[in-house]
Amino acid sequence: MTAPVTNPLVLFYDGHCGLCAHSVKFVIARDKAQKFKFAMLQGDVFSKMVRGSSTGEIPDSMVVMTPEGKVLTKSDAAIEINRQLGGLWNVFAFVGSWTPRFLRDGIYDLVARNRKRFFAPPPDACPLMPPEFRGRFLD
After folding, report:
1. Which residue would you say has higher pLDDT here, 95 or 135?
2. 3-state DSSP assignment of residue 137
3. Which of its termini does the chain have fewer beta carbons within 10 Å around, N or C?
4. Reduced to 3 states, what is the DSSP secondary structure of residue 9?
5. Whole-angstrom distance, CA of residue 29 vs CA of residue 134
């Protein structure tokens, strides 16, 4: 197993959303370098790290905070996740970064609006994680 990154990115997710829960599992499975830590949007970590430092409206789906404190939302967050995962996912990041933001954010918003309809919420907000992944969650 790879040693964790000293200054990880933080992936904030909606703890009541099935798609978000699946996305977190997706990232964990592919983040071999352990570049990401995870915390729920509904938690204290998010309130302390993001709400106080951000002036814009934060969506209730997924948000990425870089080690420098930059807050990425919507398709920018998805592009950064793919970029950090590397490999083939970098191709998706490259294509996404060349797609006009209004178009990619429009697609992101469409999925975000319908995510709870198509993906069942997790049975509880804090599923049991295998011990090797528990240290990657901040809440």
Report:
1. 95
2. strand
3. N
4. strand
5. 14
Residue 69 corresponds to which tokens in the numbers above? 């404190």
Say what the pLDDT of residue 49 is.
84
* Residue 84 · residue 34 · CB < 8 Å: no
The amino acid at 59 = P
Q: Token pair of 42, please?
A: 């509904």
Q: Render pLDDT for 61-85 as a digit per residue (tens, 0 to 9).
A: 889 999 999 999 999 999 999 999 9
Number of H helices, E strands in the chain: 6, 4
Positive or negative torsion for Cα 59, 34, 31, 15: negative
For residue 53, give every residue at least 6 positions away whose Cβ sits within 8 Å of its Cβ, in sequence order, or none.
69, 71
**Distance (Å, rounded) from C-alpha 66 to C-alpha 99?**
22
